[in-house]
Amino acid sequence: MNLLGIDVSGTCATFSRLCYFGAPWYSVILQWYRQQRSDHYRYPTSADDIQIVYESKNYFVVNKDDLVPIDSFDAPAQVNVTQQVKKWFHKRETERFLKQDPPATEEQAEQWSKSLAQKVEDIRYCHRLDLGTSGCMCYARSASASYLTYKAFIDKRVLKYYLALVHGHLHAPYSIFVNVPIGENASCYGRIMCTDDHPHCTAAKPAQSHVDVLEHGEYDGKPASKVLVRILTGKRHQIRLHMKYLGHPIIGDYLYTDPIDYKPHRIMLHARSLTIHTEQELIDALAKDPFVTQIDPKWKKTKTILPVSRW
């Protein structure tokens, strides 16, 4: 990347890593990423811009946008997913209340307002996604519902599938099983992770993923593959590290690529589907595939190996 004739690629890459760990420049790198975006790519400009892909009396599942933090703790000045969900719910319930016939009395309206405020307060997320990852994210509407999803995660009654665009053409006639432990990289500042074959890996824990190749194509003129990943464990940055271990790092991953892949407008990782078997209900949600030419013209499919619609 040139700025006034000076190559600042390394500076931008280092800058992005510092911002990733909560440095004061966090919002600056976010703005820089936004400027790189395709004109066809959507980005939430307000708390009202949110997609609900599953709803019941106990849960919501949203299609989280990439580079949107989960809550205000992650980025106080930015739109965040929790804010989006709560504002959407409050607005919808208010519209329903105002449409009821006959209209509520002043006393009923006051009681309803207090009740709604408590319902909004009770909404909380059940799990997390990385900042750069888009896709299915579950919110509980009460503490008891949240506890049931927690139990489901502990008891491994959760299925999570991710789509990713990775560098190069990955060739595999069958599903690839990656069983490589992940730990923290003691040689890096912040919570940078690594596989256990790294010389500075500490406290490595088991991590397993299944990888299926869906499509071959090109991204920005270079060979790329679309893969479907099912994670059997939930370690930090697991998919990103397992794809790097296979020699096909995720496009746009500015933490685990060498040289650092800072040019794409996002990390090409998307939580495609989420199934949670709680004792209360079966949560089953699907978020549309964002890695299509109509959304990002830089991606061009040349060969279909397995149809995405199957998942």
TrEMBL record:
Alphabetical GO biological process terms: enzyme-directed rRNA pseudouridine synthesis
Its Gene Ontology molecular function terms?
Answer: pseudouridine synthase activity; RNA binding
Gene3D superfamilies with a match to the protein in the record: Pseudouridine synthase
- Note the SUPFAM superfamilies from the entry: Pseudouridine synthase
Tell me where in this chain the Pseudouridine synthase RsuA/RluA-like domain is found. 59-244
Family listed: Belongs to the pseudouridine synthase RluA family.
Supply the name of the protein: Pseudouridine synthase RsuA/RluA-like domain-containing protein
